[in-house]
Write a structure and sequence with these properties.
Blueprint: H1 2-24, E1 28-35, E2 37-38, E3 50-51, E4 63-70, E5 73-80, E6 86-94, E7 96-105, E8 111-121, E9 126-131, E10 134-135, E11 150-155, E12 165-169, E13 171-175, E14 178-182, E15 191-196, E16 206-214, E17 225-233, E18 239-245, E19 259-266, E20 276-279, E21 288-295, E22 298-303, E23 306-312, E24 321-327, E25 331-341
Parallel strand pairs: 1-9
Antiparallel strand pairs: 1-6, 2-3, 4-5, 4-7, 7-8, 8-10, 11-25, 12-15, 13-14, 14-25, 15-24, 16-21, 16-25, 17-18, 17-24, 18-19, 19-20, 21-22, 22-23
Length: 342
């Protein structure tokens, strides 16, 4: 009897141990998952108190899914969003280490928030995992296509009329489809000039282009064209940009061949420090094509398609018309004048 008892006891003991070990492989627990933002007072000891999530933007959330993964095992729980914090429970989950991922979607099915964490699920207890999600973002490039440029002035003088131009001083004569500006002595400046659109606030960002050459027989061949742009005021005060050009083939005494100088005048006709100066390859005994671009406070100067100067003016004049001129008692010819408004 004693031998039989011990056998049975031993068998039952081994059976119990075997069954207990086999049962551990399938032990179950549960997990509570809270998606929100923990308060600053939360600690690892006391339960965390979650603050409202997605302040000001929660209306965009429509649905979500929480996924648990452990090896090849996967558990998904879908839910409709009704407010934050989001509090979900999973029961009868195998013990062990699980990865948690959260995805929140808008009404169009785009994932707009995501987050992840890990949790250890223990037998017979409810583990808690807190997850803070972050917005899913991308890059947005906005290209605004503004119609234009608009051609607001297209003058070739072929009709013998300079429509819209005002003679400020000197003289201007149209000959063979060209306008000849002739300078004369005077105060506060010498030379000749005609202006278009002076003070016009709508003439702000534009490209001013024209063909130009010097005229023989004036001031001993000292050819020196000058043009104006963003001319705001003229007369009692002068607010304008001025570009002087000393061509490579000028005969002006003391001139630096090819020299140009771009200045800004504010209120008086006093020579200002140059915004830009240097040497170009301008020859005015032949036709040249000149372009002046003024966009914002950036000014660009081109001669025959090549960029000669680019300058940023920190105290820019932001609007005003354009002008064609000549310095001292010289003469300059202009044709094919265009003004492109941007």
């Amino acid at each position: 009897m004693k031998k039989g008892f011990w056998f049975v006891t031993a068998f039952l003991f081994l059976l119990n141990m075997g069954c207990s070990g086999a049962f551990d492989q399938g032990d179950m627990g549960s997990v509570r998952i809270v998606i929100g933002t923990a308060s600053a007072s939360a600690s690892s000891v006391t339960p965390q108190v979650f603050q409202p999530l997605f302040a000001g933007g929660s209306a965009a959330i429509d649905k979500g899914v929480v996924t648990l993964k452990k090896g090849s095992q996967r558990i998904d729980q879908n839910f409709d969003y009704s407010g934050s914090p989001i509090d979900l429970s999973f029961t009868s989950v195998q013990v062990g280490n699980w990865d948690i991922s959260v995805a929140l979607y808008d009404a169009d099915g785009f994932m707009i928030y995501e987050g992840s964490s890990t949790v250890v699920i223990k037998k017979g207890v409810t583990s808690t995992a807190s997850i803070t999600v972050s917005a899913v973002t991308g890059n947005l490039e906005i290209i605004i296509d503004v119609p234009g440029p608009f051609l607001v002035l297209d003058e070739n003088f072929d009709d013998g009329v300079a429509d819209g131009w005002t003679l400020m001083h000197g003289s201007a004569v149209i000959t063979n489809g060209e306008i000849h500006v002739i300078g004369q002595g005077g105060v506060p400046m010498t030379g000749g000039s005609i202006l278009y659109g002076m003070g016009n606030i709508s003439l702000s960002n534009y490209v001013f282009e024209f063909d130009m050459k010097g005229l023989e027989g004036y001031s001993g061949g000292a050819m020196r064209p000058v043009v104006y742009f963003r001319t705001k005021t003229w007369g009692a005060s002068y607010d304008t940009y001025r570009l002087d050009m000393f061509p490579m083939d000028t005969l002006e005494v003391g001139a630096i061949l090819g020299w140009y100088s771009m200045c800004e005048y504010n209120g008086t006709w006093t020579w200002s420090p140059a915004l830009a100066d240097g040497v170009s390859d301008l020859f005015v005994r032949e036709w040249n094509h000149v372009e002046i671009s003024v966009i914002g406070n950036v000014i660009r100067f081109y001669v025959n398609g090549g960029l000669v100067a680019q300058v940023t003016d920190p105290s820019a004049i932001y609007y005003g018309g354009v002008g064609l001129g000549t310095v001292n008692s010289t003469g300059s010819a202009y044709d094919n004048v265009k003004l492109w408004l941007y």
